[in-house]
Write a structure and sequence with these properties.
mainly alpha; 66% helix; disordered C terminus
Length: 184
């Protein structure tokens, strides 16, 4: 879990460190076959992102959205790509859309929390981390959490608990509790 970070999903972060050259071009006949399955498009999009081909990954995501507009996965990858190019506002907007489409998309809350923390919005970051903690606590510990590969709910819960122990998040939690109508 040491490599798990709240800012850029590991798959995209790995691509940024070690860009893999693109695979050799497929035969012309295979290239002419359109991909119209959302799962296939998302698989291709992640492969393109992993290989350092963000433009092609964005195009795959746009195609996936055209097929399945309510699927949160293309928006999540687009948010990761926006983070990669430094467009925090776009990444936040896309992550909020992911959460709107799927309230259980744990990675979106974690990533959005990281962006809020980077922006100094510690109360918002803590709210995201609290949501992640609650969602993970309700899952069996060995549940695999997409898109974090081999990381389990227990692994990520440990990571989130450490984030919540950071001084800025402890203060944010105390400030938020003091402003809560329940404490008035």
């Amino acid at each position: 879990v040491a490599t798990l970070g709240p800012v850029i999903a590991p798959r995209v972060r790995r691509a940024a460190r070690t860009a893999v050259p693109p695979a050799p071009a497929a035969p012309a006949k295979a290239a002419a076959m359109p991909v119209d399955n959302c799962d296939q498009l998302m698989h291709a999009a992640w492969q393109h992102a992993d290989r350092g081909m963000p433009e092609q990954a964005r195009e795959d995501c746009r195609k996936a959205i055209a097929i399945a507009i309510l699927d949160p996965r293309p928006y999540f990858l687009l948010a990761q790509l926006a983070q990669e190019r430094g467009d925090t506002a776009q990444a936040k907007m896309l992550l909020n859309k992911v959460i709107y489409l799927d309230h259980g998309f744990i990675a979106a809350y974690l990533e959005l929390g990281g962006l809020h923390a980077q922006s100094g919005e510690h109360v918002r970051a803590r709210r995201m981390y609290d949501t992640v903690r609650n969602a993970l606590a309700a899952l069996p510990p060995q549940t695999s959490i997409a898109p974090y590969g081999d990381s389990t709910a227990a692994d990520i819960l440990t990571f989130v608990e450490r984030l919540l122990e950071r001084p800025e998040n402890v203060v944010a939690g105390a400030d938020a509790a003091a402003r809560s109508p329940r404490n008035a």
